[in-house]
Amino acid sequence: MTRKPLVEDPNDDGIEVTGLKDWAAGVPGVLHAMRPALSAMGVARTARLLTSINQKDGFDCMSCAWPDPGRRHSAEFCENGAKAVTWEATPLTVSREFWAEHSVDDLAGRSEYWLGQQGRLTEPVYKAPGEDHYRPVSWDEAFRLAAEALNGLDHPDQASFYTSGRASNEAAFVYQLFVRAFGTNNLPDCSNMCHESTGSALVETIGVGKSTVTYEDIPQADLIIIMGQNPGTNHPRMLSALERAKRAGASIIAINPLPEAGLIRFKNPQNARGVIGKGTKMADQFCQIRLGGDGPLLQAVIQRVLAAEDAAPGTVLDHAFIEQHTSGLDELRASVADLDEQAVLRATGLTSTEIDELARRYLAADKVIVTWAMGLTQHTQAVATIKEIVNLLLLRGHMGRPGAGASPIRGHSNVQGDRTMGIWEKMPDSFMDALAAEFGFEPPRRHGLDSVDSVRAMQRGDVRFWMALGGNFVSAISDTASAEAALRGTAMTVQVSTKLNRSHGVTGDAALILPTLGRTEIDRQASGDQFITVEDTVCAVHASRGKVDPVADTLLSEVAIISRLARATLADRQPIDWAAFEADYGTIRHHISRVVPGCEDYERKVASEEGFVLPHGPRDSRTFETATGKARFTANRFEPIELEPGRLLLQTVRSHDQFNTTIYSRNDRYRGIKSGRDVVFVHPDDLAERGIADGDVIDVYSEWPGQPDRVLRGFRAVAYPTARGCAAAYFPEANVLVPLDSTARESNTPVSKAVVVRIERAAA
Ligand code: SF4
Which of 356, 489, 424 is nearest to 195 (CA)? Predict the structure, then answer.
């Protein structure tokens, strides 16, 4: 018995609010994973898929980028991984009649939840200029139409090619090759909207924009500081690794504006302690920080560390490491010498005692790991904040040794691998040189457009063709209305997708949807069944093999779609054998091994069950390819966020039943929300100060100099123990509050955290 497509789009009328849970996972987590899987896929398919997820001969979870342990359980997935598999592997499909019934405007008016519930896309569809419905077309027709649009452009830079973090290394490599052979570096990706700030900060300070920590480092740490990250919802199996670390004696400090269930207590469903016991207490210290206060907090801790060194010279800092491997300590010292403690307390909302305790824990630990996610990367001063993390770690040599390091936790399963394969608008010349030597053509050298700049270029009319390899761009980016208007102004939009989402209702003059295989499905090509490869958040690369028959035999893999589009568009313009890529992905990996640094002998290394870990200078040998040839201490200044009376700082968050823009249900179990998403979490005292009661319907206004206010109307106020002066609302609904030009300095990442808002009881 399998689910039927959803007919009515649900609203928030039946919303229930019960409050924050104080533990994560446990038996309810297992039940929440299994029930939807069984109802959507049946017993046999559920068993086949859930026993293959993240196994050595199975497929990689298509959800987050958390790594796999060397020794694996037979059930190596979390509740969210099961939801992601269920969502993709549903046997429900979108029928031909669907396209006649639903216009593009109708799709644009539907919720993400409703769209996702319609089932898998199975055949290419086309919306012709002037028409308001998609209609099925053949694959040949689809490629002809896309190629005609591309070849009709005045210049290759009039096209922009987006990549979501689900694309495999093989698809990403062929995609960037096609885009560069076509003649542009316009390769925006979802990383522009999540960890771009991390890359900017780490490349400048240590020379590599990736984690210096491996999976095995985590249980060896003495102290793990988790900043702006909610692992219980966004990387749930990280809780098992944190539990191991705690059992081995580590302390955890959580720094976050919201108390989150997974940061309080974890009931591991794979051990008795979690099933019948009380589970494991996670954070030993919880710093409930005000939004935007992370940078000043890190500076205050650094100041205390330097003061401790001054009080007992030679005993606190790792002088040998600093002397041999770093530059810039004097500048760092000067930058925090006159730090104003009162300004720090105002910025962080913490007490001096709390900061003292944090510093004491840092000083007491021999091995420290700092992890972070989008709670840090999506601020105006995100890059400077992450540089302060590096400063803190370098002071005591917490880099390039076991149990210590910097660990950005990536959101989408292969977002890091896509970058490694060349999906970046400004790949270095060394990569272009390797491409040129390998494929016999001269790739363009001028830098391309990132995500925000692609929208700006569409607004100006400079980009006329938009292609998205996966993802849901209009929901992922800020300033929803502007992004949608920009896309509607293009000549053609092309989306490679497994299921419907909001971006399919926002089209150019003409539009194509090209349906593709999912990770769970067997990828059969001329040379036999194929596997693909992915890279997780700690630089480990491994194979992924689909396990079930494709939901329809009309589907093409991403590699096949790109190869055929390249053939249709470029014909014999470049000496590249696209057909060989489609026939045998081993040919792609052969080229990867000759072009991508660190991937030498790629086929052999990924063929082993474990895969391999990419080389990483700072982690492996304390070598730092920076401007100074050393790891760089940096001096940063944080401008205080001054608020007018009555204003709050708002952040966007994901619910527990959500992965990026995909909404699995309208519940958020850990925060006690059922059957609704139009809510704003506000501290009870902040509500009371404004004369607003828990449950009142409110409007949320964001204010921008020289612009009209932006507004979210008719949301429910939820009294919640967030930090004073801070509020939270769900992504992507709250994206409308952020203008396109509000981006993080240096990284151009949309700023979805610490948005200045006022709330008012709704007029009607
Ligand atoms: S932790 Fe992430 S990668 Fe692992 S099963 Fe859960 S969602 Fe998938």
Answer: 424
d(CA 665, CA 732): 14
Distance CA 439, CA 591 (A): 9
User: Ligand 1 in contact with 66 (CB < 6 A)?
Assistant: yes
pLDDT value at residue 764 = 66
- 411 Cα: distance to centroid of ligand 1 (angstroms): 10
Ligand 1 atom closest to 65 (CA) = 3
Report the relative pairing of strands 492-497 and 510-515 from DSSP bridges.
Answer: parallel
Q: What is the pLDDT of residues 620-651, one digit of tens each?
A: 999 999 999 999 999 999 999 989 999 999 99
Report strand pairing: 326-327 vs 631-632: parallel
Question: How far is the centre of ligand 1, averaged over its atoms, from the C-alpha of 263 (Å)?
Answer: 17
Pocket test for ligand 1, best of 77, 413, 519 (most atoms within 8 A of CB): 77
Residue 642 burial class via C-beta count within 10 angstroms: exposed 0-12, middle 13-18, buried 19 and up: exposed
CB 495 within 8 A of CB 124: no
- Res 696: pLDDT: 97
Give the rounded distance of the alpha carbon of 736 from its chain centre.
19
Task: Give the pair of three-digit tokens for residue 687.
Answer: 């509500």
CA angle 746, 751, 756 (to 5 degrees): 130
Cα 80 to ligand 1 centroid, rounded to whole Å: 6
Give the distance (Å) from ligand 1 centre to CA of residue 647.
37
Distance 497 CA to ligand 1 centre (A): 21
Q: What is the C-alpha separation between 95 and 114, in angstroms, rounded?
A: 15
Model pLDDT, residue 35: 81
Q: How far is the centre of ligand 1, averaged over its atoms, from the C-alpha of 240 (Å)?
A: 11
Of ligand 1's listed atoms, the one at least distance from the Cα of 237 is 1
Per the CB < 8 A criterion, the answer to whether 390 and 368 are in contact is no
Model pLDDT, residue 3: 58
61 in contact with ligand 1, CB cutoff 6 A: yes
Is the minimum distance from the CB of 239 to ligand 1 under 6 angstroms? no
- Asked, as a colleague might, if the bond just before 313 is cis with ω within 30 of 0, I would say no
pLDDT of residue 1: 42
Burial class (CB in 10 A: 0-12, 13-18, 19+), 436: middle
Note the pLDDT of residue 213: 97
Q: Which of 253, 331, 336, 343 is nearest to 292 (CA)?
A: 343
Q: What is the CA radius of gyration of the chain?
A: 25
Which residue from 32, 53, 59, 66 has its CB within 8 A of the most atoms of ligand 1, so it is best to mutate?
66
Residues in the chain with pLDDT < 70? 1-3, 764
CA pair distance 738, 591, nearest whole angstrom: 41
- What is the per-residue pLDDT across 375-431, written as a single tens digit (0 to 9) for each? 999 999 999 999 999 999 999 999 999 999 999 999 888 999 999 999 999 999 999
Residue of minimum CA distance from atom 1 in ligand 1: 237
Q: Residue 201: CB within 6 Å of ligand 1? A: no
What is residue 380's predicted lDDT score, i.e. its pLDDT? 97
